[in-house]
Automatic annotation (TrEMBL):
<feature type="binding site">
    <location>
        <begin position="191"/>
        <end position="195"/>
    </location>
    <ligand>
        <name>GTP</name>
    </ligand>
</feature>
<comment type="subunit">
    <text>Part of the signal recognition particle protein translocation system, which is composed of SRP and FtsY. SRP is a ribonucleoprotein composed of Ffh and a 4.5S RNA molecule.</text>
</comment>
<keyword id="KW-0733">Signal recognition particle</keyword>
<feature type="binding site">
    <location>
        <begin position="108"/>
        <end position="115"/>
    </location>
    <ligand>
        <name>GTP</name>
    </ligand>
</feature>
<feature type="domain" description="SRP54-type proteins GTP-binding">
    <location>
        <begin position="270"/>
        <end position="283"/>
    </location>
</feature>
<keyword id="KW-0963">Cytoplasm</keyword>
<keyword id="KW-0687">Ribonucleoprotein</keyword>
<keyword id="KW-0547">Nucleotide-binding</keyword>
<keyword id="KW-0378">Hydrolase</keyword>
<comment type="similarity">
    <text>Belongs to the GTP-binding SRP family. SRP54 subfamily.</text>
</comment>
<keyword id="KW-0342">GTP-binding</keyword>
<keyword id="KW-0694">RNA-binding</keyword>
<feature type="binding site">
    <location>
        <begin position="249"/>
        <end position="252"/>
    </location>
    <ligand>
        <name>GTP</name>
    </ligand>
</feature>
<protein>
    <recommendedName>
        <fullName>Signal recognition particle protein</fullName>
        <ecNumber>3.6.5.4</ecNumber>
    </recommendedName>
</protein>
<comment type="function">
    <text>Involved in targeting and insertion of nascent membrane proteins into the cytoplasmic membrane. Binds to the hydrophobic signal sequence of the ribosome-nascent chain (RNC) as it emerges from the ribosomes. The SRP-RNC complex is then targeted to the cytoplasmic membrane where it interacts with the SRP receptor FtsY. Interaction with FtsY leads to the transfer of the RNC complex to the Sec translocase for insertion into the membrane, the hydrolysis of GTP by both Ffh and FtsY, and the dissociation of the SRP-FtsY complex into the individual components.</text>
</comment>
């Protein structure tokens, strides 16, 4: 479906005269192709433009290396710039969950993969980090979602807070905190209710829960295939409640991963994990190299 960017660029450079350095015109021509590739990968237009401008500055005048073609060289420059943009100071897989019991808030829209990701992450914390984890569903609007978390918990061997009908989300959060403290848990994860779209009631509810628990991490779970919508959702959640990181789900599908670049460039928030399927093991630490490779095709 997508033409490989390296091949495309080779074509561009074949038509250009060979010189000792990448000239401004060569680079411009090549970056037009890169821009198309970024847009095809669903990177937002302003982010693509800004990125291209920075790469252009860096690439112009670079000596052409003998061992690679100019096309390969530009791809390498673009690849490195993508990795640099996607890489922050933080270690994506290392969550701030010292001082037990550490509260973690899981937020996002309905259907984004929040409940699945909560369980996947709990399993990871248990198995890789040896943490004792308690999960609680705050989705009082969808009893099925509460049940779903309990079923997943049983499946992965992670405790869930018993469901008590009629409690408000803040009350459930308080109960989770209490049980986590008394039960000697290292982490308690709060799977908040999602809506089909952002609304004030939802935001207020999440803000209230955050106020009573002071979460150490607030992870936004978004469908990576929704591209720019995912970025807008992240901006809204960050403005209203403050998020500490992002999990991009459905990265096992065909999408080219451009949402990751826009997400990082626009929100400045680290992408911590990617969801790669429905199974409980299908969660990986975010790797900038992999996404860069995927965006370039
Ligand atoms: P929630 O409403 O945000 O809690 O969403 P769910 O966790 O219930 O997930 C909705 C659907 O997406 C379920 O069928 C999940 O199995 C599926 N899902 C979640 N994460 C992924 C992922 O990374 N890849 C794929 N292919 N499916 C996922």
């Amino acid at each position: 479906m997508f033409e490989n960017l390296s091949e495309r660029l080779s074509g561009v450079f074949d038509r250009l005269t060979k010189q000792g350095a990448l000239s401004e015109d060569d680079v411009k021509t090549a970056l037009r192709e890169v821009r198309v590739a970024l847009l095809e990968a669903d990177v937002s237009l302003p982010v693509a433009r800004d990125f291209i401008a920075r790469v252009q500055e860096k690439a112009t005048g670079q000596a052409v290396t003998k061992s690679v073609t100019p096309g390969q060289q530009v791809v390498k420059i673009v690849h490195d710039a993508l990795v640099a943009t996607l890489t922050g100071d933080e270690d994506p897989g290392k969550l701030k969950i010292d001082n037990p019991p550490a509260p973690m808030l899981m937020v996002g829209l309905q259907g984004g993969g929040k409940t699945t990701t909560t369980a996947k992450l709990a399993k990871r914390l248990k198995e890789r980090d040896g943490k004792r984890v308690l999960m609680a569903s705050l989705d009082i609007y969808r009893p099925a979602a509460m049940e779903q978390l309990a079923v997943l918990g049983a499946q992965i061997g992670v405790d869930t807070l018993p469901i008590v009908a009629g409690q408000k989300p803040v009350d459930i959060a308080r109960r989770a905190k209490q049980q986590a403290t008394m039960g000697g848990y290292d982490v308690y994860m709060l799977d908040t209710a999602g809506r089909l779209q952002i609304d004030e009631v939802l935001m207020q509810e999440v803000a209230d829960v955050a106020a009573v628990t002071s979460p150490r991490e607030t992870l936004l779970v978004v469908d990576g295939l929704t591209g720019q919508v995912a970025v807008e959702v992240a901006q809204e959640f960050d403005a209203k409640i403050g998020i500490s990181g992002v999990v991009l789900t459905r990265m096992d599908s065909d999408g080219r991963g451009g949402a990751a670049l826009s997400m990082r460039a626009v929100t400045g928030k680290p992408i911590r994990f990617v969801g790669l399927g429905e199974k409980m093991d299908a969660l990986e630490t975010f790797e900038p190299e992999r996404i860069a490779g995927r965006i370039l095709g």
